Every structure is written in C-alpha cells, then in structure tokens.
Amino acid sequence: MLIAVVLLGTLALITAGDRTVSWVESAAGSVVQPVQTFASKASYEIRSFFQRIFKTTDADKEVERLLQEHAQYESIKAEIEQLRKDNERYRELLNFTSNFSNNTYVTASVIGGSQGMWFDVFTISAGRNNGIMKGMAVVSSKGLVGKITDVGATWSKVTAIIDPSMSVYAMVDRTRDAGMVKGTLSADSQNMLELYFLPMGSDLVPGDLVMTNSTAGFEDIFPKGILIGTVVEVSRRGDDGKSRNAIIIPAADFNHLEEVIVITGIKEQGE
What we know:
Blueprint: H1 2-14, H2 23-54, H3 58-97, E1 103-112, E2 121-124, E3 137-139, E4 144-151, E5 156-160, E6 167-172, E7 178-183, E8 193-196, E9 209-212, E10 227-234, E11 246-250, E12 259-266
Antiparallel strand pairs: 1-2, 1-12, 2-5, 3-4, 3-12, 4-5, 6-7, 6-9, 7-8, 8-11, 9-10, 10-11
Helix pairs in contact: 1-2
C-alpha cells in the first residue's frame, strides 16, 4: 500500500496540466493499474457485504420469518407429541388402578435410576409426606415392579422384583398352582425371574401368566392378582442341582419406567 501511495503521488505530479503522456508516466501507470484493480474489487466486496447485512430485501426478510416460524412449529410439534405420550401413560395407569378399587395408592414419577447395568433400584418423587412407608408394593401399568425399601420426606427408593434379594408369592393364572418368584438379575440372565416350588404334577407351559398370590398364613405386601410376568422356559431342575420350575420375563419394563403406583393401604369400609 505504501508503494501504491508513492506511485499515485508521482503520477499525480506528472499528469498535472494538459500535456502528452511521457514514457515515464506510461510506466508508472502500468505499475499502479494492478493495485488499482485489486483495491476496486476489494472495495466492491466490502460494500456488498455490508449491503447484505443492512440492506436486506423484502424477500430475504420473508425467508427469515418463515424459517423462524418453521422452527417454532417443530418445537410445538415435539411438545405435543410428548404430551400425547404422557397422556397415554397416565391413561394406562388410570385403567390399571381401576383393578384395585379396594386399595389406596399414590402415583409418582421415576426421578433417578440405579448405577448398575439394570433398573433394579430407583428413586421416585413421593415419600413420607405422601403417606409412603417401607415395604409398600409398587406397580406400573404393565404389572408388578417391586417394593419401597427406603423413604425420605419427598422421595422413596424402590427395589425391583428383578433384584436377587426380592421374592414374591405367586400363582400360575391358568393352572392356579402356587409357587415363589425370585429375582435373578445378572449379566447373563438380564431382567429375568425364576419360578420355584410348584407342585410336582404342575402342567406349566411357555406363555402361562404368573400373578401375585397372597397366601393364607404368610405375610405378603403384594395384593393378589397383579401380573408378574410370562413363562418363557420350563425346567424341572437346573444344572446346578437346585430346583427351578420356570424362567419368567417380567411384565414391567425395567429399562423404561417413568411413572409408578405405590399401594399405600386398603380403603376403610364405605370410603
């Protein structure tokens, strides 16, 4: 740029007055011409840039408005879809609770999962302030989930039936045979349950439904008739020598729990 200024100054002095262009002036013009061309193009690009920013046309403004409206529409569409899914889940819960008209219950959202591979221990958004106590049964719209094992003022922890520490009195819906369901959570068995202690002559087949069973003479927190799961494999004795009647896949989806129901008690007569 410094060289260009010097050459332009020299050219201005030489061309002062009306006279014929000398060979010196011609040479100076040849040197300056490329610089002038570059400067002109750069000036045009800079001017065009600022024109695009500050002098947009009506068409440009309309396109921008339409893009903003489209983004808002997509956001609203996503919210509506989420509300639809929530409504479906709440409707399923409402239909499920109609099967337990003699029980009182509290609905709660799942707000935290376990640190392990599977959803065997999780936290819900209801606690002592909602009348929840340790040992209460927890269900979902699909079936039995587990029981309350720890309680805070506004939260509770639930241990799922797939946990090895859990066991439930059970009954095969078709044959009415009683047994015991136990959690078998491990890396190889995943979210499976095992059904034990069925009668020797029990006619158990894959596809049989297994329900909770409050056995007389035994204290059980789970109301009778809640779906536990479905038989997927029948075996009279395991490879380790311990009796094992069947493997059950649980009805509740322990990988996608969002809302649950805590059964808090039995309604008073006339309530």
